[in-house]
Amino acid sequence: MAAEQQPVRFGILGCAEIARKVSRAMILSPNSTIVAIGSRSLEKAVNFAKNNGFPVSAKAYGSYDAVLDDPNVDAVYIPLPTSLHLQWVVAAAKKKKHILLEKPVALNVKELDLILEACESNGLQFMDATMWMHHPRTSKMKEFLSDSHSFGQLKTIHSIFSYNSGDDFLKNDIRVKPDLDALGALGDTGWYCIRAILWATDYELPKTVTALPDAEFNEDGVILSCAASLRWDDGKRATFYCSFLTNLTMDISVLGASGYLRVHDFVIPFQENVGPFYVTANTKFAELAIGIEPAPTEHKINTDLPQEALMVKEFSGLVSGIKEHGSGTEKKWPTISRKTQILVDAVKASIEKGFEPIEVVF
Question: Which parts of the sequence belong to the GFO/IDH/MocA-like oxidoreductase domain (predicted)?
């Protein structure tokens, strides 16, 4: 009889708000557990573990280094500000800890390459924490986009992710601080929009990226909202808008020669256990143009585990394969992260160069 697979043992660096959600996912995932939490304040780490239902055996530490030094930690989840990612991923990789990293993964692709090299050279799995990629809805939507009859040739994509969290957020959140998360809305909400566009195009990078005029900044020069247009040599086009200044919106629209897909809650489903999306195919105006036919159809994809738990489950499965069976690392996740970062960099460069087109180079 085969030995039962041991759960992957996570350490968490920092007590960020998002870590509450991901630690819950680690508890819900069937192949993971939490063994350590570290903060610059021991008291804060102790309270975080207590308030978020950590196993009683989980250790609380008053430093990040102590988590990395814990021999029981297999992998670390890093929800620290982006400016600290390079430092702490490299430190974790030296201690042979697999990496689940919050997005944006780096301030630029040069930093990300150092992060990925640290992981690769130590035989460690890397994955960014873009949760919606792991919802079963995502693969179902891709099936529709791959249907040559119902969807046809991909023509254009538009994505929006925005939210307005009010004045306190705009003054005090780390995502508007140039020394912590200098990419602002582009790195936060824009990351999701760019990933959605890449996902729809099977991760084919565009030829050029052009930021649209009138990006908005705070007084420290951090991006609060921006938009961009992406162009491929075969005629595909994509646009996106990301913002900290407009009502919560999480849309992807994908248009093909024969069909159309739309999802209204791609980042975080409105309901945790079901993800809907809408499609139309070979649509025509009805008689007298008083409607359309066939009518759009709604697909509801159920899930027993929330998408963040499915992310942890997939990551933990990859780590277990490496740890217990000597499997190689899964290369698609670092590659997808790098392509997303390249496009984030290109949008930023276009803004800085007066909204000129930027040629994309992998």
Answer: 147-261
